[in-house]
Amino acid sequence: LKPYLPGIQALRDVSVDDFIRLAHLLPEVVRRRAQHVVEEIARVEAAVMALKQGNVALFGRYMQEGHRSLRDLYEVSTPELDFLVEFALKNIRMTINLVEDFRLSPEKGLEFVIESVLKSRLLKEPVVSSVFEEIHKSQTGRFWGTLELVHRLQQHF
């Protein structure tokens, strides 16, 4: 793009409008990767403004767009990460309810609230314990890795 935009040093110097105008000059894979970078820079700047304005919903949309762009244009996502994002988006209301329940009755303890919500969602008795309990219980000090946890979640949903 430098021959057409002589002042640029890196993709951070390319505006979204300039990229759209010149994207056809790039090979397909390079175009997709560069599109992600250029749009992500603009997205991050917009997300910062959304947070400064207290617009959490708009910030959330930018985060979702960022994940889709990483998945579709930069092609660096994994099925496990895609599942976690989808799971989080589908269950955001449950999380809000969980936080509200805990705020209203903190004496019950967070584990009780998590168990209650999961039991109503899974329709069976969940086993909930803190990460510290899991580390303490384990003879090796190892607890569920992220991928193992994702696979266990996928079995339930």
Describe the structure.
- The chain is an all-alpha fold.
- It folds into two domains: 76 residues, GHMP kinase, C-terminal domain (Alpha-Beta Plaits), CATH 3.30.70; 80 residues, no CATH class.
- The chain has eight helices and no strands.
- α2 packs antiparallel against α3 and α5 runs antiparallel to α6.
- The chain is elongated.
- About 6% of the residues have low confidence.
Give the topology, please.
Layout: H1 16-22, H2 28-52, H3 56-74, H4 79-90, H5 92-104, H6 110-122, H7 131-137, H8 146-156
Total E-strand runs? 0
Distance separating the two termini:
46 Å
What's the number of structural domains?
2
Helix/strand order: HHHHHHHH
Counting copies of identical and different chains, the oligomeric state is: single chain
Round the mean pLDDT to the nearest integer and report it: 76
Which percent band covers the strand fraction?
under 5%
Rg, Cα atoms, Å: 22 Å
Shape by Cα distribution? elongated
Which structural class is indicated by helix and strand composition? mainly alpha
| Poorly predicted residue ranges | 138-146
Major β-sheet profile: none
